[in-house]
Amino acid sequence: MNKENLENFGLKMGKWTMKAPYSRARFWSPETRATIDLLRPFTLAAPLIVSMSIMVASLVFNHQKFGLAIPSDWHITVAQAGLTIAIVNAASNSLNQAADVEADKISKPYRPIPRRLITRDSAQSIAYIFYLFALLRAVTINFWFGLFIFLIMVFTIAYSLPPRMKKYLLINQIWIAIPRGMLGILASWSVFGQEHLFETPTPWVIGGVATAFLIGGMATKDIIDAKADKVTGVRTMINTFGTKTTAYVSLPLMIFPFIFIIILINLGLLARYLWPLSFFSALSFLIFYLMVKEKESKTLENVHAWSIMYVTYIFFALVFSVLTIFNDILPEFLYL
Question: Which CATH architecture has domain 28-326?
Fold first, then answer.
């Protein structure tokens, strides 16, 4: 594709990144693109990939351990449940922007509501429609999946709307880590493992590891918003203690959950073949370094540390899934 054709294709597609200006494209209007941006597609990759990975791992795990029959349409169930979890996150993103308009005018004026392409009320309505659709879809899969999706909704709504847990120091990081870590993993595991959910510690321990990591890692999202959060009465570690101090506090929270995997294996709470997951502690040092640098991405909405934090979580789930699915053919050294 030559330069002229590339430019023509760009005009058809409109803006490519969140921070680019809105322009009228051949394929969609600025308002349509603004609606897509409202859902923040990049952040939906993590829940979608993580949830689908955990679902497949759960299917194989429960087949091997409890003799669960593998349904012929398992891939359809995985796709539907994964999409449901992604829709809940899209609803959360839309509601969060509706609630954070004043802060976004300061730190993220490129978002669709500050640019007046979407109204606050419209964004909130979109969120409620998505929440309702996700809940109705979730309860058709099974009871436990529906319950966990409902709990995720409660946490994300209470984060943005009164009692607005987002504004409370330390609580805000824990509050948002629970639905994205523990509840998200348990919801995914319950798609196929609901009957034996309380008979194995694996999903609970993996969910706990993910939650602990996210409690530390979620501090990265507050770096860009430090000034806006302070103006709007939101207390975060970043705007209270500074980025450098927050990075040093967050580092052990990101490292130790992965290191403790070895201890959890020795306690019999995790299978021995999962010990390679402890190597993800190394990526925590990279996140720490990027937090201190505070370098903002030119295309994504936040600093590079925030992006790497999400990528780390995605690959943690992928590696866990691969090790679980292929545990019977893994090299012998992985069982040491």
Answer: Orthogonal Bundle (1.10)
